[in-house]
Design brief:
alpha/beta, 16% strand, 238 residues
């Protein structure tokens, strides 16, 4: 299984990542990716960049080293009403937003509250991916989430970082497996990302590929297998 792009990656701009944008792009090209997206944290996390960082993406070429370059951001959910920490005037200039639950910006609630937070986030036309919905620090009902995502045209993320030993997320492999089964049930589209915080992890999908093969995940629901499926993420939702 050859995955063609990685859209959840972080640069030094996030404040707790260790590679530059150029280093990440070089790594993506070296491992044979066809497209690369960067998605630094927004300002709800300590050390994250000012909105000017996202506002100036016009200077970044759309193709570098044979790679299609996509411009994104990982926004932090702020409350149970689906609000997040990036202005629409910035969001509308980007290719996609990843909506995630992070402790610095969000107080975890019940499983139902956390699930509804992410479902309400899907009401924004700029939210294209729900990031790492696999962490029992912020438990969610992946069956309910997958059904809502399928209806909204939002992709759920299989986060390779969550599957690795030593990850700070709780029960990532178990929850990610259940998420995939629920996505199969509802016909929910999935995108695999590394959530890399250093260039050596860009495009390294081994754990995710093993899990996808283990559950026999349908190829027609997996975004990364075809560059045309980037339209699932970058095209405006209807």
């Amino acid at each position: 299984m050859k995955l063609l792009f990685d859209l959840h990656t972080h640069t030094t701009a996030s404040g707790h990542a260790y590679s530059t944008l150029q280093e990440n792009i070089a790594a993506a090209a070296a491992v044979g990716l066809k497209a690369y997206g960067f998605s630094d944290h927004t300002d709800g996390l300590p050390g994250a960049p000012h909105s000017l960082w996202f506002d100036n993406f016009k200077v970044i070429p759309r193709e570098i080293s044979g790679l299609r370059i996509l411009r994104g951001a990982e926004v932090n959910m702020r409350d149970y009403e689906g609000h997040y920490d990036l202005e629409d005037r910035i969001a509308q200039k980007l290719d996609y937003l990843i909506a995630s639950l992070h402790s610095f910006a969000y107080q975890s609630g019940t499983r139902e509250q956390n699930t509804q937070t992410l479902i309400k986030a899907m009401e924004s036309p700029y939210i294209k991916i729900i990031g790492h919905p696999d962490d029992d620090r912020y438990p969610v009902n992946t069956d309910v989430l997958a059904k809502a995502a399928a209806q909204a045209g939002v992709l759920l993320e299989l986060n390779n970082s969550s599957l690795r030993p030593g990850c700070t997320r709780i029960n990532g492999p178990v929850n990610a497996r259940q998420m995939l089964l629920d996505c199969m049930k509802w016909g929910t589209r999935v995108v695999v990302n590394t959530d890399s915080h250093i260039s050596y992890d860009v495009g390294q999908f081994a754990e995710s590929v093993r899990l996808l093969e283990e559950v026999d995940f349908p190829q027609e629901l997996l975004a990364n297998l075809d560059l045309d499926r980037l339209d699932w993420i970058t095209m405006p939702r209807r």
